Amino acid sequence: MKELEITLQRSESTVVLHAVGSVDSDTAAQLQEPLLRAAEAPTGAVELDLAEVSYMSSAGLRVLVQAAKALQKRGERLRLVNVPLHIYNILNLAGFTSFIDIKT
Amino acid sequence: MKIEANLWQKVPGTPSVEIFPIIPKTNCISSNCFIFSARDALVVVDPGANREQTRQISQVLTDALALAHRPILVFLTHCHQDHSQEAGGIELPTGIEIKRFAHQAGVEAMKNRDPNLTVAYLYLGNPGICAAPFEGILFRSSPESEPSALELDDGRRIELHTEPIAMPDGATLQRQWLFLGDGNRLEIYHTPGHSPCSISLRVGSLLILGDLPFAANPGVCGLNGWNHADLLQSLRKVNWLLETPEIEVCCPGHGYCISAQSMREKLRMMEAEASNLTDVPLLDAERISALKIYVDELLEETTALLTIFSGRLYTISYYLSLLEEESAAGRILAALDIDRIDGILSDFRRIAEAFNTSAIPEWTVVLKGVQVARSLRLILSAEHVQQLLDFHLVDRAQRRLLDFLSVVHGLQFLRTEQSRAANEVIAELLKRAKEAQLAQPNDLMEAVDDDQAFLQALTRRLEAHSPLRNIDFEFTPAPQETNANIGAERLDDILTNLIEGMAGIGVKHIRIATEVSPGHVAIRLSSRERINPAAFGKRRLDLYNRTLGWLGGSLECSQQAGNAELLIRLPALESV
User: How many Å apart are CA B396 and CA B419, to the nearest integer?
Assistant: First the structure.
């Protein structure tokens, strides 16, 4: 199974996380820690780049909801960018587009 | 009476025999092994096919021999590779004699290096078929040629007695037995069905059944040598044996030993299931390869569907949290064991990936797929899940898993339901999509004075978040009869999945048209928006093309004026 690698890029107003690999029950914690840290910080937009994510299971969806909740508390929305079509399809059908900004 | 793995314990119903069970994690690569220690012999049933396990067997035997020198008698419950491969690999101290026993059909298969009856064809890299000599040939077809005893080097003899049991229903259970000393006997029963060489063995009140308890499973029935009539007879005979109070514990060829009563219940259920397994096709290498592809496609689709289930629950919980209904949000998530489903699916992905690196045989992937499908069906059939999730979605997932199990079983599917006109099925689907747009306008108002009812109404509204609700449909029905030879629910499933797939990638306008041509009903799905055919997903299209192909239909994705169009062809009902 592919490992998940997360790298972080900070600018003045945004934290961008790049994920590479599969996000499933074995690897979701690797995404959870940096993503929640960014979302729970007092300021700054949070963007997650999924261009190189091949698979996302419900464990990954849970992490996204946790981050979305944390950001919602300070009036922000989580941004997902470069979302592969098959993952976009699932997020859209699950209703995530109503509370997360998602771009393919 | 519990039989534990990896330790010596008394065999129930005997004065002095002990058993040392080796029970690896259930897999189809190597079987359980049971070692008995009796006064006159050490008996090994099914060495298995794992070198590490063979080393353990050799060590256990060596330790037991240090207490008393005895010959080793190796028995095979049947000649399948996962039980027999290591029968010649046991290493013993000098001077210890070993005699091997198996049913005549199994002995001949191993002697002739038959990859079919030994099912060696299921395993990677042509594993070696056991070449060790078998001196003990059980249930010979010409009993007159059977020597009554095997001579040991020290002059002792192992007498093999033949004494069939006349059953009350007039049938005969073929039995042979030998003495193990101190008045203990090892009884052997011929129980074919899984394989013609299948035997069951009894010591005291412990019965070893080999793979008989799995013989009706999808991915197992239809293996070379499998026989429906023999299996039903063997199940009846073993059930009869289990009704006698003499048997307390049953040990299968894979997995843990269970009480005779539990095994009786299992075999009765299996008997009912097996009675439908007439005309099961041969599960040969070609069919296993085809099934493996189907497993991959189907589980990918099912994974997506179940991830959408979980995602919808997370969406509901998100909004309930915003409304400061944290405990209700928690209850929603707890109702469906999302983590367990995720774990099951992740486990399968790991197996499938191991296959793709050629580390395991295709058959393992198929059997793992069966296990996953059964586990998911069980989770989805829980009443609270049915109440919580959109029942239509749950039914779709259930039907898909059931189709899979039926196909692996080798049974026909999709022809058991009533067929309906394609126009009617589409109209019904569009009506459902329309209803999703019009959630009951008064439900929240009516529930406003009751906290619990209000929460339930709110949850129902969130659940009704149908992906079809934002789509504009344009339906052009054919004026002729559109009766197609496909169950209405299956057609609805296929259409809903394809339409949801289009909705998932952002399509907002879908045109549906039906057409009738001689022998066929066609359904065209297209969108006003431009779609890249790749967006549908190759595996999804392959899966539905395969499913429709089994019905004499097809699914094509073509370019029409630069845009993708899906064309479903169904065989017309009257043409079949």
Answer: 17
Domain residue ranges in chain B = 9-139+158-283, 284-412, 414-423+469-576
For chain B, the straight-line distance linking the first and the last C-alpha, in angstroms and rounded, comes to: 57
Contact (Cβ atoms closer than 8 angstroms) between residue A14 and residue B332:
no
- Dihedrals φ, ψ of A63, to 5°? -65, -40
A93:B467 CB<8 A: yes
Q: Does B500 lie at the interface with A, CB-CB under 8 angstroms?
A: yes
Per the structure, the complete domain to which residue A49 belongs is given by 5-102
Mean pLDDT, chain B, rounded, equals 86
| B342 close to A24: Cβ distance less than 8 angstroms | yes
Which residues of A make CB contacts under 8 Å with B?
A: 1, 22, 24-26, 55-59, 61-62, 65, 68-69, 72, 85-86, 88-96, 98-99
Strand ordering across the sheet containing B33-37: B9-10, B18-22, B33-37, B42-45, B72-75, B98-103, B136-138
| Chain A residue with the nearest C-alpha to that of B349 | A1
Please state the separation of Cα A28 from the chain's center in Å. 10
Rounded alpha-carbon distances, angstroms, from residue B86 to B125, B129, B256, B375, B489 = 16, 9, 21, 32, 49
- Tally Cβ neighbours within 10 Å of residue B84: 31
Q: Which amino acid is at B135?
A: E
Q: How far apart are CA B501 and CA B534, in angstroms?
A: 12
Q: What is the pLDDT of residue B561?
A: 72
Q: CA of B344: which chain A residue's CA is closest?
A: A25
Both structure tokens of B470? 């934002």
Q: What is the DSSP letter of B77?
A: S
CATH T-level fold of B9-139+158-283: Metallo-beta-lactamase; Chain A (3.60.15)
Which one is predicted more confidently, B4 or B335? B4
| Residue B163: φ, ψ to 5° | -150, 85
Helices (H), B381-510: 383-388, 391-409, 422-437, 443-447, 451-463, 488-504
Backbone angles phi and psi of A22, in degrees to 5: -105, 135
pLDDT of A1 higher than 60: no
Q: What is the CATH T-level fold of the domain B414-423+469-576, as seen in this structure?
A: Heat Shock Protein 90 (3.30.565)
List pLDDT tens digits, range B116-175.
999 998 887 677 899 999 999 999 987 666 667 889 988 889 999 999 999 999 999 999
Nearest-angstrom CA–CA distance, B164 and B455:
68
The overall pTM is greater than 0.80: no
Q: Quick one: residue B255, left, alpha or beta (phi over 0 = left, psi -120 to 50 = alpha)?
A: left
A45 Cβ neighbours under 8 A, 6+ residues apart: A13, A14, A15, A76, A79
- Nearest CA-CA partner of B296 in B355, B226, B215: B355
Q: Does B348 touch chain A (CB under 8 A)?
A: no
